[in-house]
Amino acid sequence: MTVLPAMIFVISDRIQGHLSQSGGVARWISRLTGAEVAEMDVPRLSGWEGLRLLKWKARFLPRVDGRGAAQWLQEAGAAALFERALSGLAAKNLPPVSALFLSAGSAAAPYTLALAKATGQRSAVVMTPSVLGTAPFDFAIVPAHDHPKKGKNLLTTLGAPNMIDAELLETEGRSLASRLSSRAGNKWGVLIGGDDGNYSIPPEWAERVLKPLLETAEKTGADVLITTSRRTSSATEEKIVEMVRGSPSIRMLVLGTKDPWNPVPAMLGACQRIFCTEDSVSMISEAATGGHVAHILRVERKKGLRKCLQDLTTKMVDKNLLARRRLWGVPRFDLMIESFRGRGLAREYNPTKPDEAPPAQGRRDEGLSFNEAKRAAEWIIQRWKT
């Protein structure tokens, strides 16, 4: 049996956040073993075909053999994906159990499992796939705040693995700093997420939270770099554009809905202090990986039946009527943020007391010792030998 993976196929659903997680783990495995990395996109399935293949027929994949997995791939429009994998393995003359198929998210997970089965290789998933769960995979990397069931194939992480490393921060940070007309050595980066099923960042939030932060930056002579995400509403982006227009402290504003560039690595490399909205696990994780104490910006929590059910679940957990892993939505993310705070990786930002945390308290560890992608890679390599 091969004692180290010789090739890694990153199976992508084209969602940037998922690719950052799986790609981060793959890059570290490659660095530690010399394994070649190839990225492959899954077919886009929607409507009835998507439901039939990804939600129904995929649930039988754990029980099929290699031939059955190959048949599923054919039916799911992934024949070309299968052929490309076979060609890549043949080109390196790789025997079974010498390559890894790796993905993040639910949409790519069935393809990852099927490709591994059809080629006689191993499979890994980041996060818990909604249909398959983690049990069918050789390796599963799941955030601790999801409270996954324990298993020999499972590693829990704090937050999300990502692509951030010292080399990327140095390169991107230096490039960004050279392009900015900066008047200050102290730079603050503000990472703003957006609306989802649990959180909301309306225009009023910018007035209530972002404005005091910018006023504090102006008083202390700090330059501010801001980026929004693809989830940020257009109304909120318009409000932010209006607020920062003419502000002497603003040195960069990247709107995630309009600019394809991801400035986060550059901001983490160039800034001395990072602020993150609470809704984004990925941005908080990236900030911590980049050696920063992430200053958490609280946003609005959506109301309605969903919130009532979350609150009810929390009460039942507090009374020991339900297991902690039953928490979901905002209470689950609150636990994650509390874990970051407990390890000194995050702290609360209070907009009513903006001067409470001195600007100097931003960098945590120049050695970048917190890196869940690297830890996951080391875990996979260690288990590969058994």
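The above is record 1. Record 2 follows with the same two-line structure.
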Amino acid sequence: KMLDKTEYMNDLLDWYQNLLTEKQLQCMSLYYYEDLSLAEIAEEVNTSRSAVFDLLKRTAHILDEYEKKLHLVENYKKRSKIYAELSALHNQEVDKLVGELEKIDTE
């Protein structure tokens, strides 16, 4: 369950990090990407452990709200599944089109 939440938060950060403040992004990155403890993050950003906890909780909520409104992660996962299914057909024309769509997704 915790691994699922971490994976979900990592996905949200990948898609919505540019919408966060510098401090929100720093704390979320240290916690979710680098797996630092609240105490380690508090020391890194020169604040209290409880302030870090509150910031992480608020930022996770903000990211979740972005996803509920914009569905970027959900839609990406759906597209990726469809791309994989189309690629499994082993049709050259379909493979070419899937390649073009994947290029657009990474731009």
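The mean pLDDT is 92.
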